[in-house]
Automatic annotation (TrEMBL):
Organism, as annotated: Bacillus thuringiensis
Residue intervals passing through the bilayer: 6-25, 46-68
Name this protein carries in UniProt: ABC transporter permease
Keyword annotations of the record: Membrane, Transmembrane, Transmembrane helix
InterPro entries for this protein: ABC-4_Integral_Memb_Prot
Amino acid sequence: LMFIETIILGATSLLIGITIGVGLAEGIGQLLMKQLEFAGKGYKAFYLPSIAITCVFFFALFVLSAIMNS
């Protein structure tokens, strides 16, 4: 039961963290580009490879934590 709870809470926090992080990166990036009068046509706050690496890394940490706690 502890294992499942840790994985569910970890996945939920990861999803919320990525959502907030992408939103803040987009907002701050646009604000900075506006202040610098820079077009930044290739800028994307949602970069799938970095999100995938983050998910793999944190999922491994959550599994390790769940194993240690159960």
